[in-house]
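Weekly puzzle thread! Below is a chain. First person to post its structure in token form gets bragging rights.
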Amino acid sequence: MASIAQTSASDEAERERRQPLLGHGMILLFVALIGCFTAWGVAQDLTTPMVAGFKRIFDMSTFQASLVQLAYFGAYFLLALPAAFINQRFGYKTGILTGLGLAALGAFLFYPASKIMTYEAFLVALFAMAAGCSILETSANPYVMSLGPEPTATRRLNLAQAFNPVGTNIGVLLAATLILPKLADPVDISSLTPAELHTIRAGELGAVMAPYLGLAFLLVLIAVAIASQKAPPIVEEFPDAGPYEGGTTGLFRVLWRTRRYRYGVIAQFANVAAQVCTWTYLIQYVEQALHGSLQKGGFYLQLSLLVFLGSRFLMTWVIGRIRATKVLGALAFLAVLLCAFAMVSPNMAGVIAVVSLSFCLSLMFPTIYGVALHGLGPATKFGAAGLVMAIVGGAIMPLVQGKLVDETSAAISFIVPAVCFAVVGLYALYDLRAPNTVAGSVA
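Winning reply:
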């Protein structure tokens, strides 16, 4: 019996490998969608350094400056469900264009914000841009999955998601070259006249504004490209998923009853938390382990993001040959070991271990996403929203790790991402053991 089961699994894997990655006539649309994945990567990591930037510009506390992250992740959490209703009523393409339009509007709002010269004005612009990115991500991920045969959906999403860290690296580069160098060194505000202070802040806020205006024009160009594409008919609701009764309420009931999806939301929360924790506190870890500067920590952060980028493309190739959740489980438990090593060895070897966490992270988001949405059929749109809302893990768990940094050390604090990686690993084990059922089952 075991031999028969192994043969069946091998035949199924071979059939999946023979399936095309994209449906007929989908290439240009897929390329345009890749632009979306790159653009929201630029937006996210162009924004990350703004915590330090606004702290300096407005002479505020770290807590006040951290409202930048709260506005960004808060928008993701709040707008994901409305995006699902847009997708349900008007389709994925309308959701994508709505997200691009709102994100572009938010980026353009950085111009009046730089003239108003208040922190609150920038937070409004940032929230609007992140809200658009939330709608965009909620719509684009399942849309990419639907551009071809279902057996290759996870691999297709991994390929598209591989271009997200391209945007991430561009965002960090833009911030490092166009924003942070133009921020004045801290000065004694009391020694400046109001006119002098106004002039300095106007120049600094102008430096903040410029890259966002460039991003706004990029988002508009991508929207035009997608709007001009005539996508062939897409089968979004799979015949074997079965009918759902009860309208929207029935769809939510299906999501709750589907363990693979329900546990997937938890795993995605943990994955995003681990990612944000790792990258947020890598600099502090380097400062402690190597007695280095912020510049040295920034170098290792950039190196970590490059590892993440290269690994995304590598893993897209790997999961074409090995079941995605097998690779997910192996990388998750490897990440737990790397965190444990970094905790007990705060030195150069520990720094290498923390940088290597990006190798493990690369596969996680798109794989969890694809596995959790598998077979949901008509419930896919709302299921996608729940997985995007799980991004709020990136706002919550870093607060826990930050408290541990204050109370212990940067090294000890890496127990937080270790626990998160363990949750992801357990989800991979669950999927490997669970029967291949469709939505609405209890498996």
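Puzzle host: Confirmed. Bonus trivia for everyone else. Confidence is low (pLDDT under 50) at residues 1-9, 235-244, 437-443.
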